[in-house]
Amino acid sequence: xxxxxxxxxxPNVTRRGLWKGAAIYGAIAAFCxxxxxxxxxxxxxxxxxxxxxxxLYPLAGAVIAFVLGLSxxxxxxxxxxxAAKNLFSAGCAVLAMGALLRGxxxxxxxxxxxxxxxxxxxxxxxxxxxxxxxxxxLRRN
Length: 141
Prior knowledge:
Mean pLDDT: 81
Largest sheet: none
Structural class: mainly alpha
Radius of gyration: 18 Å
Strand content: under 5%
Shape: flat
């Protein structure tokens, strides 16, 4: 069967691919920081905590995806891995966009009852992706 962790990864899931994914998440986190500061500059210096911490969602996504990809290569072999990866990325994106919208509404001095749906949808996507990876890991063993 497999003799090493590197052989357990399919050809498209390599250390280089994991670094590339982490770099993309890092670039998105840097863009979120830039967007927050530019928005605050044009918002007359008014800031929102939701927007200030928006970069943590893609940054945490990079760390989680990279660490899981390196420490649990069996998850990458599973058939559901592409779907779980896409669901995880979508969850991080929904959470970041929800934080952006909350920040915009905070700075504007208004609120919306629909913002909770961003958080619920985002966390459902992230938890669903982690559950799919866990099921794939258990199915693989």
